[in-house]
Every structure is written in C-alpha cells, then in structure tokens.
Amino acid sequence: MGKDEIRDRIQTLDFGQPAYPDLLRQISDPPKTLYYIGAVELLRSRCVSVVGSRTTTAYGRNTGMAVARCLARHGVTVVSGMAAGIDTCAHEGALSEGGNTIAVLGTGPDICFPVENRALKKAIEKRGLVISEYEPGTRGMPYHFPQRNRIISGLSQLTVVIQARNRSGSLITAELAAEQGREIWAVPGNIDSQYNLGTNKLIREGATPLICIEDILEPLGLRGREKKAAVVNLSPTEQEVYRALEKHGEMSADEVCVSLSRPAGYVNPVLTALELKGFIYSASGKFFLANP
Questions:
Q1: Which domain CATH number covers 121?
Q2: Residue 100 belongs to domain spanning
Q3: pLDDT, tens digit (0-9, with 9 covering 90-100), for 234-269
Q4: Is this model's pTM higher than 0.85 or not?
Q5: Partner residues linked to 282 by β-bridges
C-alpha cells in the first residue's frame, strides 16, 4: 500500500465530537485532534493499557502476551504504543485472540516506527485502531514518545507495566496514569535483574502487583463472570459438589456427603479435583469456595 493510499484512509476526530472518548476528555491536557486509521468506536470501549520496555526477556514477552490475551478474551481493548518489546507483545497477544487493540503512535498515523512492525501496524489498521495526535507525515522526535504516553494512560481504566527498567518510558506512562487518577498494576520480577528494577520499584511505591494473570479482571468487574463461565465447564459431578458448597458457604467432607446423600468414596475425589483446579480450598477441616 502506497503512502498516498494510506493517507487517504486517515480520518480526524476533534475534541468536541461525540465519538471523542470520555476518559481522554478528563485528563489535564487532552489532544485537540486525533488522526486515526481503523475502528474509531474502540475509543469508547473498555480499555486497559499494557506497556513495558523495548528490551525484554522471554519472561517479559510471554507475560505481555498472556496479559493481553486474557484481556482480549474478556472483551477488553488492549492499548499500547506499538514500540518494540512489551508493546509489540501486547498488540500481538490481543490480535491472536481475535480481540481489539489500539496503537497510540509517536509519529504521524501514516508512519511506522519501528519499521520492523509494518506487518503489525497493517494488522492493527485492519482489525483494530491506530491513532496519533501528530499530523500525517510527522516523523518521530524524541519528545513525541513520552508525550503520547499520556494518551495511552488517558484512554485506559488501568495501566499494567511489565518489565520496566529504572529509566524506562513505561514508568512515565505509570506516572501519568497516577496523575490521571487511574489504577496502576505492575508485574513483579526477580530482584537481581535490571529488566525488573522499574516495575519492582512501582510495587514498592504502591502499584498493585499482578501475581496471577486473571487478577487483572477483578478491578474490571470481570472476575466473577470468568468464574461462572469456568464452572459451566466442570463435569456434572464436580458441579454438583461445587453447587453444594456455593449454597452452604463452608462444609466438611462429611457434611457434603450428607447434603448430597453421597458416599465418601464419591465426594472425596471430587473435592480433591476441585481443590487442584483452584475452585475451592480447605482449612481447619472445612472446604470453602476460592474467589467466590
């Protein structure tokens, strides 16, 4: 696709138009005009930003993909900056699940940076949304990228930071998110690695640590919905025992047997299976629902 053809596809969205996203209106310095290619309606969808360093490890890349996939499966739009490293993994993870993603560029919307992400940019233009506050033809200047970070966090209900070094640009995004009154989550990493120094510091300063990928669904009000969907996939016997615990709140194995009129040989293996799958836990001789 030639430059002229790309520019023909670029549209504008001004601050005063109804399609302008409400969350972005609320920040102290919202862009007056957004230039975009793709599904502009995504700007008004539920968004979470996933950001991190350009230089990463396999741990960071895998985590970025996993977080984005989880969000995409639950209908959340993943926002990032299309930079190398974690940003790229975030966009690719969302697209791999058939989900939605928004790329916020530090260049004009017709320019791909880094150039290695040409195929990714085309995929986002086709299946998601590419936006920029910079006019078509604008080359990326060093100050553009920190400046665009306020849009990444501004579009998002919360921001997840993965593998940020001590001076990573993603820490600027986290700082902006805090100024905008948005939640900040950070993925902890081993303390002897420079790749995790920034994220570990964020946690020390009050960011919520992302210990389990699915935990990111909780502040979005999606965790319970996920659990209900998972219960449907249990076997009939597992559902029977799970529903008994759901009804009574806490029960011993004997009480489950009495409630269901089932022998211990039937109930105990099911309780063990449910505990191994993370649906229940045991304490002081009783069984309880996990994350009810």
A1: 3.40.50.450
A2: 3-221
A3: 899 999 999 899 888 889 999 999 999 999 999 999
A4: no
A5: 287
